[in-house]
């Protein structure tokens, strides 16, 4: 008997939780209420899942607990919001990034010629400091007074369009001066980043290829700047649905790039050093949110208007009608339910299926699953595991950022949104078992349900024995109560439902 | 016989003095600080009755002297908090991300109990703070110590966040003041930090010295030695007959109680408590203090608390609202370039700290 | 020197540290083309670390490793492996959650590697064909060992590093393993770590003895078998 | 109950994911004997050892110590009832001093572990005991060295010292000579012999070097593929045809027959 319990602990635990959550509830409420609460729960679960799955994959593969994951969620939300409502921001900032990248790439070849002349360790240190100071001061000169806050200030019109603040853009000549300085700053950065020892081992691209790539980056940047006015008008004239898709893509890319930056800058130099990694991502979680506040402002933005696909102010009777009507809510068993939330659920399911299939069916997925078990052996088979690490970090970060974009029309956009989702994602992966993809899914569903039903009961009131009055509370109580589920799971199975034994 | 005995006592006293003189020197400076500050940076106009000690005391209650006493009070409070955290992280190897839970609960318990809902006396409330911290750390210690490494970090974070959410929730506004927190609760007049800054200063100093001595005694006791053994090699500690769970729990409870005391003192000093006392940010502060100062030493966290507190003050003056951004970046740079902290780097030749750190990393990596 | 005597691998005086521990303090090994060379020595002498150092999993701090005439010391393991070195680690390191087929497929360096070598691999280990869909973790110890060797055979490797293939196996399985390895040596060069002296003496052409992180003696296996004094001295009486 | 039996296992089975690592081993060890378990790599010796020391729980079967069922007793309790074990892979507190390593072990079985109000230096008895043990195992000159700086042989001695410090009745030694230089081995075996004779201890030793154990053991058990193949005095074992065939025969047959 005890051995039966021990062997099937996972299953029993899920059943117990399901019974606790649903068992008592279904009797006391109408099916339509029950279903709409379920759907709300799944909406939350879907968003949690987008954050938690990346967190769990990253931890499983490289034992890194990324405390800055919530920052990426926020980053995604802001980039998405800006793409959707305020493309002017990108026409003014992207050229700077493109120019920097182009300059850094070119300068790596300079670095190759430079470092062999710096032969002692001491001189290298000195060169590092000089280059860093040079890069920092030129960058400071280049970006001083850049009107980033003004570019970000916009108002939302009644129909959901944005009214950008006039005069926020700098004159073209000023912008070109900045671009020039940024390109100059890229030179010391490129030299700093170029490989120093054993140069024959780390092949750089042939110089003509680099020139081609960085040249086209620079050209794209300049073109973007030149067309900034027409481009903005053209962008805002696009259909909101298309702009929303663009927002998701831009947000996800920004998140993925952020993830790559974190991995290469803060994680990779400290492999085998989990405390340092942890503390560094923790530091980034403070600095990152502060940076976002500095760029985008501290105040909460109202929810981004949902795309017109879910935006008509009407109520469809059935899902089939929705396809022609694009109403903002749909009839579910006689109760209206926002269609945008259904969309969130669909995104969650699609991502789950896509990543799951990727893990099961592709070679990359096979390598990831193998790496979770023994990354050294994968390395010994001739596979560059570090690159896989970076890729998975980018994937996980991209998913979190995508979650941020998708949450924007539902929750609004504010700097603190990441912390909330990160915490729930932590709880979900602890419940589901760190490093398990399925565990992340199950954990997030449990949490989503607990939140939704918890919210309902707390608001409707609970009859406690020995008390006449109904005890009511705020959603905060339901939010805090998810921690109790985690405590329960820990008591029964410390490694989480799908976790491996320690 | 008698002679040898007396020489040994003598030499042992001398040895003790040799060992303790830096501590005594610092203690002496701290004791004299209000008077020195009163004499140098106090406002001369505040002194009414001419000369002597009482006039000095009056000058100490004014101007920059008062301000810097306040600064030291806050440093000492955070030093208690940081030492308690080091007991967990540096000595026992437990990486908790929920230590602010105890700090905040201590503060809130003090504020609520002496506040208008209960009107308890200071002594009663202090006793209650200790009892609450004991119960809280026992419960959450038993729960979180079931897991290790980063799991423990996440779990403790979640527990702390639960308290944070509850403190912010509107449901208990009557007691907690929801997201505003509690301000201006009736601190007994004789303890008011605004009216009797120097008195509060000495009270904090007494608490600090007591905390230092007690924690030092704990880490030097047989129990403390087992905690270090647990950090170094938990598996082996189990095999030679220690039930390491109890030692980890002991560390957890002791750390919880001292953190709660620090929180209660902070509440008394500021006459306000806010949900941010329970937040992850507060845990990060104390983690930064411990790491920057140097883990596994008691001097380290004290040094770290001073640095962070002063740094925060200066950064805020220089950078205004965006000082936390600078703080976050500085924090990361320090972790990268001074991984063993200041005291640890100074003692880099003494192997314990550096390798204790490595050991901890290995435990966290699950090896 | 005759062309057949060319060394596929030459390890010259490598020094390896793991953390602060000085594990290898001057190991030199030569592995002639087409041979089976065995590393002998006691537990903890540094044999496994030597293999890992060659591959780059524990990069040596100094010394030289020359594979096929090219210096490979200091390169990351994945690049070394891709140059044509297969590794069969101690304790097999089978991916437990991957099926046998996936365990083999993951070792492909070019797609189609497995299809090309399938016949050869399943000829050596017919058991694996039957188990192809099972998760690696469900295999018995012997089957896992076969899978680990098979995995190293999927790409075109010129050199196999095999660490204690007989460890923890039943005698019958050991026989099978020996058989397979000796058949393999017709195709690739092998550097073997083996505690079991009998197995080593039957298989190997050459040997190198490692003692406390240093290579102390090497030569032809046939000579060592008769050299009872050395066996006594370095390997202990029972061996 | 036979008082002369110190520890006894009954039908001990341990299955790791389908592999029967220990397969129905029943063994009795008498008080104050040196009982050796030999067998080839992978025969299940270390797993059997882990079952005796409580590091892992058996799938089925029971362990009795001094007539008491200790199957489910956790390892830290086993140290208190007198079972101590050493590890095949050196497992000390690397950053603590040699003395502190042993002192902790002596403290572990004392009754002062929870005296958190007192300075540990007050408890001289543990320090004195640790010093005495370091003398015994030949590490007296290195008391203040961090354990990780000891040479390999020194660590093996320290391992034994830690074990002795808790004053166990039963010592479980898992290949104490593993990885030691040949010159150092006799010294360690001498220490083991002296411990057994002066301390009235019972020792269970796991080794795979036959020659080492033949002249120190009272009894030898041979394990093979998780099972107990034979048991007897060293002479009986040497003469046992089954052992010859399965253990010595297969692996050492060529040498023994050829010479």
What would the keywords be for this entry?
heterotetramer, B: 367 residues, mainly alpha, ABC transporter involved in vitamin B12 uptake, BtuC, D: alpha/beta, Rossmann fold, four-stranded antiparallel β-sheet, 9 helices, disordered C terminus
Notes on the protein architecture:
Chain A is built from 19 helices and five strands. Chain A has a three-stranded mixed β-sheet. Chain A has a two-stranded antiparallel ribbon with strand order 1-2. By secondary structure, chain A is mainly α. Chain B has two domains: 1-60, no CATH class; 64-364, ABC transporter involved in vitamin B12 uptake, BtuC (Orthogonal Bundle). Helices cover 76% and strands 1% of the residues of chain B. Chain B contains 16 helices and two strands. In chain B, strands 1-2 form a two-stranded antiparallel ribbon. In chain B, α4 runs antiparallel to α5. The radius of gyration of chain B is 22 Å and the shape is globular. Chain C has a domain at 1-84 and 191-239: P-loop containing nucleotide triphosphate hydrolases (Rossmann fold, 3-Layer(aba) Sandwich). Chain C is built from ten helices and ten strands. Chain C has helices at residues 47-55, 77-82, 100-105, 113-124, 126-130, 141-153, 171-184, 197-203, 221-226, 228-235, and strands at residues 7-18, 21-32, 36-40, 62-67, 70-71, 85-88, 159-163, 189-193, 206-211, 214-220. The model of chain C has no long low-confidence stretch (mean pLDDT 83). Chain D has 259 residues and is an alpha/beta fold. Chain D has a six-stranded mixed β-sheet, with helices on both faces. Chain D has a four-stranded antiparallel β-sheet with strand order 2-1-4-5, covered by helices on one side. In chain D, 47% of the residues are buried. Chain A binds chain B through residues 59, 63, 65, 266, 272-276, 278-280, 282-284, 286-288, 290-291, 294, 419, 423, 426-427, 429-430, 434, 473-474, 476-477, 479-480, 483-484, 486-487, 490-491, 494-495, 502, and chain B through 95, 143-144, 146-151, 153-155, 157-159, 161-162, 165-166, 168-171, 280-281, 284, 287, 291, 322, 324-325, 327-329, 331-332, 335-336, 339, 357, 360-361, 364-366.
């Amino acid at each position: 008997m005890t051995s039966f319990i021990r062997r099937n602990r996972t299953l029993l635990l899920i059943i117990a939780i399901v019974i606790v959550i649903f068992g008592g509830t279904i009797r006391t409420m109408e099916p339509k209420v029950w279903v709409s609460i379920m759907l709300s729960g799944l909406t939350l679960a879907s968003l949690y899942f987008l954050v938690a799955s990346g967190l769990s994959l990253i931890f499983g593969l490289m034992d890194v607990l990324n405390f800055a994951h919530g920052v990426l969620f926020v980053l995604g939300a802001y980039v998405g919001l800006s793409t959707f409502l305020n493309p002017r921001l990108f026409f003014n900032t992207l050229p700077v990034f493109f120019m920097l990248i182009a300059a850094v790439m070119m300068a790596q070849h300079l670095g190759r010629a430079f470092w062999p002349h710096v032969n002692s360790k001491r001189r290298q240190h000195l060169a590092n400091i000089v280059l860093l100071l040079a890069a920092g001061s030129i960058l400071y000169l280049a970006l001083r007074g850049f009107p980033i806050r003004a570019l970000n200030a916009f108002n939302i019109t009644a129909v959901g369009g944005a009214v950008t603040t006039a005069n926020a853009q700098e004159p073209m000549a000023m912008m070109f001066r900045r671009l020039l300085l940024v390109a100059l700053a890229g030179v010391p950065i490129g030299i700093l980043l170029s490989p120093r020892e054993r140069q024959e081992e780390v092949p750089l691209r042939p110089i003509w290829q680099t020139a081609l790539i960085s040249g086209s980056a620079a050209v794209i940047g300049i073109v973007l700047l030149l067309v900034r006015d027409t481009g903005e008008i053209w962008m805002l004239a696009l259909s909101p649905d298309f702009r929303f898709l663009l927002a998701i893509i831009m947000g996800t890319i920004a998140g993925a790039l952020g993830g790559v930056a974190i991995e290469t800058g803060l994680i990779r130099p400290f492999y085998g050093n989990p405390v340092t990694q942890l503390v560094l991502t923790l530091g980034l979680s403070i600095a990152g949110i502060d940076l976002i506040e500095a760029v985008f402002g501290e105040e909460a933005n109202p929810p981004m208007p949902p795309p017109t696909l879910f935006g008509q102010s009407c109520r469809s009777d059935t899902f089939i009608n929705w396809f022609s009507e694009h109403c903002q809510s749909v009839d579910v068993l006689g109760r209206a339910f926002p269609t945008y939330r259904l969309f969130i659920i669909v995104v969650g399911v699609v991502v789950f299926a896509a990543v799951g299939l990727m893990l099961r069916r592709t070679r990359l997925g096979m390598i990831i699953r193998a790496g979770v078990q023994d990354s050294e052996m994968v390395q010994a088979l001739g596979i560059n595991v570090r690159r896989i690490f970076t890729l998975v970090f980018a994937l996980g970060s991209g998913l979190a950022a995508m979650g941020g974009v998708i949450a924007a029309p539902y929750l609004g956009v504010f700097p603190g949104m990441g912390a909330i989702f990160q915490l729930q994602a932590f709880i979900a992966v602890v419940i589901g078992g760190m490093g398990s993809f399925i565990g992340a899914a199950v954990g997030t569903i449990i949490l989503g349900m607990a939140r939704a039903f918890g919210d309902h009961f707390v608001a409707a009131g609970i009859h406690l024995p020995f008390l006449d009055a109904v005890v009511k509370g705020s959603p905060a109580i339901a939010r805090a109560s998810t921690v109790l589920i985690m405590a329960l799971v820990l008591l029964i199975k410390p490694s989480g439902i799908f976790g491996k034994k320690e | 016989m008698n002679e040898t005995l007396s020489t040994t006592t003598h030499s042992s006293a001398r040895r003790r003095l040799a060992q303790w003189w830096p501590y005594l020197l610092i203690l002496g400076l701290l004791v004299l600080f209000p008077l020195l500050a009163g004499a140098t940076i106090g406002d001369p106009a505040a002194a009414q009755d001419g000369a002597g000690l009482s006039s000095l005391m009056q000058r100490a209650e004014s101007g920059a002297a008062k301000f810097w006493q306040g600064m030291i009070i806050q440093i000492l409070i955070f030093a208690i908090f940081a030492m308690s955290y080091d007991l967990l992280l540096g000595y026992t190897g437990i990486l908790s991300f929920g230590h602010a839970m105890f700090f905040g609960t201590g503060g809130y318990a003090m504020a609520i109990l002496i506040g208008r809902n209960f009107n308890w006396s200071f002594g009663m409330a202090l006793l209650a703070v200790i009892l609450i911290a004991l119960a809280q750390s026992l419960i959450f210690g038993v729960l979180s110590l079931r897991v290790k490494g980063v799991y423990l970090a996440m779990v403790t974070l979640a527990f702390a966040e639960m308290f944070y959410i509850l403190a912010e929730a509107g449901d208990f506004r009557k007691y907690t003041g929801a997201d505003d927190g509690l301000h201006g609760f009736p601190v007994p007049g004789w303890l008011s930090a605004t009216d009797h800054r120097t008195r509060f200063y000495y009270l904090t100093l007494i608490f600090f010295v007591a905390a230092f001595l007690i924690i030092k005694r704990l880490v030097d006791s047989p129990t403390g030695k087992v905690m270090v053994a647990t950090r170094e090699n938990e598996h082996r500690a189990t095999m030679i007959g220690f039930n390491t769970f109890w030692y980890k729990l002991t560390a957890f409870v002791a750390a919880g109680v001292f953190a709660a005391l620090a929180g209660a003192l902070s509440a008394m000093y500021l006459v306000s408590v806010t949900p941010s006392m329970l937040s992850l940010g507060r845990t990060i502060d104390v983690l930064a203090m411990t790491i920057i100062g140097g883990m596994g030493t008691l001097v380290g966290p004290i040094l770290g608390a001073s640095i962070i507190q002063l740094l925060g003050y200066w950064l805020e003056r220089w950078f205004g609202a965006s000082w936390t951004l600078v703080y976050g970046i500085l924090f990361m740079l320090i972790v990268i370039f001074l991984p063993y902290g200041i005291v640890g780097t100074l003692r880099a030749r003494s192997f314990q700290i550096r390798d204790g750190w490595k050991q901890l990393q290995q435990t966290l990596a699950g090896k | 020197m005759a062309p057949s005597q060319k060394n596929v691998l030459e390890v010259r005086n490598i020094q390896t540290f793991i953390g602060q521990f000085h594990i290898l303090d001057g190991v030199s090994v030569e592995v002639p083309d087409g041979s089976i060379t065995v590393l002998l020595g006691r537990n903890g002498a540094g044999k496994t670390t030597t293999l890992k150092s060659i591959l780059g999993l524990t990069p040596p701090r100094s010394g030289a490793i020359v594979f096929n005439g090219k210096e490979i010391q200091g390169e990351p393991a994945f690049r070394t492996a891709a140059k044509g070195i297969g590794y069969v680690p101690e304790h097999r390191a089978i991916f437990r959650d991957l099926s046998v087929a996936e365990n083999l497929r993951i070792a492909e360096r070019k797609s189609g590697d497995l299809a090309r070598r399938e016949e050869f691999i399943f000829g050596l280990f017919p058991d694996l064909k039957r188990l192809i869909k099972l998760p690696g973790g469900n295999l018995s110890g012997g089957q896992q060992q076969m899978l680990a060797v098979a995995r190293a055979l999927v790409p075109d490797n010129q050199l196999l590093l095999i660490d204690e293939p007989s460890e923890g196996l039943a005698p019958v399985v050991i026989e099978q393993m020996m058989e397979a390895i000796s058949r393999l040596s017709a195709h690739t060069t092998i550097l073997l770590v083996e505690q079991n002296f009998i197995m080593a003496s039957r298989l190997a052409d050459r040997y190198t003895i490692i003692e406390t992180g240093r290579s102390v003696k090497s030569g032809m296996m046939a000579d060592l078998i008769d050299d009872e004094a050395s066996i006594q001295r370095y390997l202990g009486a029972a061996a | 109950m036979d008082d002369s039996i110190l520890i006894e296992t009954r039908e001990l089975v341990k299955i790791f994911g389908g592999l029967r690592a220990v397969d129905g081993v029943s063994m009795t060890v008498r008080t104050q004997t040196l009982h050796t378990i030999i067998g080839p790599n992978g025969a299940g010796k270390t797993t059997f050892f882990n079952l005796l020391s409580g590091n892992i729980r058996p799938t089925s079967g029971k362990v009795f110590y001094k007539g008491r069922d200790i199957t489910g007793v956790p390892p830290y309790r086993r140290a208190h009832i007198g079972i101590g074990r050493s590890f095949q892979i050196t497992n000390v507190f690397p950053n603590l001093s040699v003395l502190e390593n042993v002192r902790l072990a002596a403290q572990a079985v004392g009754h002062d572990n929870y005296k958190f109000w007192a300075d540990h230096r007050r408890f001289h008895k543990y320090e004195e005991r640790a010093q005495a043990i370091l003398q015994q195992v030949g590490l007296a000159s290195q008391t203040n060295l961090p354990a990780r700086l000891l040479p390999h042989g020194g660590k093996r001695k320290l391992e034994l010292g830690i074990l002795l410090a808790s004053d166990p009745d039963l010592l479980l030694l898992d290949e104490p000579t593993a990885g030691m230089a040949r010159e150092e081995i006799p010294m360690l075996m001498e220490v083991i012999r002296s411990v057994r004779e002066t301390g009235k201890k019972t020792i269970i030793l796991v080794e795979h070097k036959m020659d080492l154990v033949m002249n120190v053991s009272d009894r030898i058990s041979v394990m093979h593929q998780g099972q107990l193949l034979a048991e007897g005095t060293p002479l009986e074992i040497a003469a046992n045809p089954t052992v010859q065939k399965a253990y010595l025969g297969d692996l050492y047959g060529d040498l023994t027959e050829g010479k």
